């Protein structure tokens, strides 16, 4: 690490508050909450912001924005998510979440939140070193894809100043040696999650002729869905169709009246995402009609994430700043996973850029995000995460 001289006062503040911030991280880690149920987490974030004298704007169910004003200059938004996952923690850390909870921060959102609060603290203590407005956007519900939309629907863009750019980061074992970086253009896939209900006709298992078996229909659908990627998508395009859950009936000798399948799709463009989901509906309807179901199938959208496209100009600006200040800078390639971060930028009509920061030194064989064993190294990841926020915003906010 070789941060420029203009960051020296921030590094001094970080040194002074390191212990407090580490304890704050441990609190978030030990108190995980599921998506859109993060009431204690949200309250703690608000408490921390108010203690720093920061204006707090509640947005939506549990979302918050800390508005840090420091004279004339650009407005920059930075987003951190703070929900956890329904996974029992198996890390063995002395600050693990209680196993009885069955919930853990298996994706690093506790690190994102602590780092953003740390950056706010450092900005508040060093107002001579920067000018403008910093929006600390704390977003719930990323894991379900509901949180960013909840904030947008609640009027995010009308409640706080409009930023010139929106930035964000994520920790994970993507880059070795605690490296950081990303690339412009498509980064994550657009996602759609749909629950399909197939209506059959219940009967005794010994009398299948008296029923219409939704399990058999579901099996035909599941097999047929595999042909979408294999036979309807250009081999040069990335597309994924996954049936992640199947539910029907409660006994071995009964033909169920209904069956449910949950399907997810991934694609780098909205156009291909729409094509995949149109094909799913076509196949499901055709199989149900072929089987003579008493009524058409039902489709319920249960989640998703938008097309994710890092702005080229913003990417160049931030990556240039990273290369000036960090030794390990690269990119993690394109991922078939999904993120609702673009919804925040889109709500403002602002360009956005998002990167990964390595959670461990050696990434080979390390548990990934969403594993019950996932845990970023507390240090230097916390320090590096805070520093990355300051460096990324410096082209807009920093003096000197």
Automatic annotation (TrEMBL):
Top-rank lineage group of the source organism: Bacteria
Domain Peptidase M20 dimerisation: 195-289
Record keyword Repeat present: no
Gene3D superfamilies referenced in this protein's UniProt entry, alphabetically: 3.30.70.360, Zn peptidases
Any one Pfam family match given in the protein's UniProt record, by short name: Peptidase_M20
Species whose genome carries this gene: Corynebacterium lipophilum
Cofactor: how bound: The Mn(2+) ion enhances activity.
Record SUPFAM superfamilies: Bacterial exopeptidase dimerisation domain, Zn-dependent exopeptidases
Name of the protein: Amidohydrolase
């Amino acid at each position: 690490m070789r941060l420029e001289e203009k960051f020296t006062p921030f590094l001094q503040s970080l040194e002074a508050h390191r212990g407090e911030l580490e304890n704050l991280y441990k609190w978030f880690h030990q108190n995980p909450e599921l998506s859109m149920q993060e009431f204690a987490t949200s309250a703690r974030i608000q408490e921390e912001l108010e203690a720093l004298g920061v204006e707090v704007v509640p947005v939506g169910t549990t979302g918050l924005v800390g508005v840090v004003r420091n004279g004339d200059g650009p407005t920059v938004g930075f987003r951190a998510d703070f929900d956890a996952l329904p996974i029992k923690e198996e890390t063995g850390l002395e600050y693990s979440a209680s196993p009885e909870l069955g919930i853990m921060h298996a994706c690093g959102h506790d690190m994102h939140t602590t780092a953003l609060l740390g950056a706010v603290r450092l900005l508040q203590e060093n107002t001579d070193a920067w000018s403008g407005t910093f929006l600390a956007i704390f977003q719930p519900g990323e894991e379900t894809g509901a949180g960013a939309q909840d904030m947008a629907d609640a009027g995010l863009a009308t409640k706080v100043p409009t930023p010139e750019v929106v930035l964000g980061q994520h920790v994970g074992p993507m880059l070795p040696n605690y490296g950081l970086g990303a690339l412009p253009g498509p980064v994550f896939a657009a996602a759609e999650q749909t629950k399909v209900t197939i209506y059959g006709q219940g009967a005794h298992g010994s009398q299948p002729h008296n029923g219409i078996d939704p399990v058999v229909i579901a099996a035909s659908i599941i097999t047929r869905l595999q042909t979408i990627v294999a036979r309807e998508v250009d081999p040069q395009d990335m597309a994924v169709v996954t049936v992640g859950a199947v539910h029907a009936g409660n006994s071995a000798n009964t033909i169920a009246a209904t069956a449910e399948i949950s399907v997810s799709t991934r694609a780098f463009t909205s156009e291909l995402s729409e094509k995949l989901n149109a094909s799913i509906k076509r196949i499901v309807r055709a199989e149900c009609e072929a089987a003579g179901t008493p009524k058409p199938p039902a489709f319920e959208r249960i989640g998703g994430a938008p097309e994710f496209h890092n702005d080229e100009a913003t990417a160049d600006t931030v990556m240039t700043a990273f290369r000036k200040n960090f030794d390990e800078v690269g990119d993690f390639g394109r991922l078939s996973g999904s993120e609702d971060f673009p919804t925040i930028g889109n709500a403002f009509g602002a360009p956005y850029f998002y990167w990964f920061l390595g959670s461990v030194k050696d990434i080979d064989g390390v548990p990934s995000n969403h594993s019950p064993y996932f845990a970023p190294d507390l240090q230097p990841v916390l320090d590096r995460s805070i520093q990355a926020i300051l460096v990324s915003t410096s082209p807009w906010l920093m003096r000197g």
